[in-house]
Amino acid sequence: MKGIKLILGIMILSILVALAWDKLPIIKNSVHAGLDPTFGWLLDLNLLVGMIILVFIINLILTIVHKYTTDQEELKKMKEETKKRQEEMRNFKDQPDKMMELQKKQMADLSSNLSKNFQLTMKPLIYTAIPIILFFRWFGDYFIAKGNPKILLGFFGWFGTYLILSIFFSTLLRKIMKVH
Description:
By secondary structure, the chain is mostly helical. It contains six helices and no strands. The longest helix has 50 residues.
């Protein structure tokens, strides 16, 4: 329960920081002072290449935080148990009684694992929620100032480009770094 309260507190703080972006100039100005000359410069050189590099860096940091703030062995074990149960169910697809028994067992395991999985996978949020909110607010300001250009394929704006690249890099980095 303590962990859930901490995560909830971080989420509330993140929302407050996001809402204070325009109301407390010190937040906005501090973030711009740090990111404009570094990542802003990178985006100014080449918008698409800069965005690819930035999204890669962000996802690399998020993946590293996730790997080292979660119990990877426990997550791996839970994943293997789920796979094993699904394999068992495939083997008994022609036996409705056995299949029903396995489904009931899986549902019971699922409800107990959801809470455990939530606590394990939400821990990185404690360290990354506020920086990500600040980054997104900065991205918004940067691209509004640039006239919201279409970055990827002449169709996707900054958020769509971020989302597509993030899915790609996150999947790739998780496989390379063996993050569960």
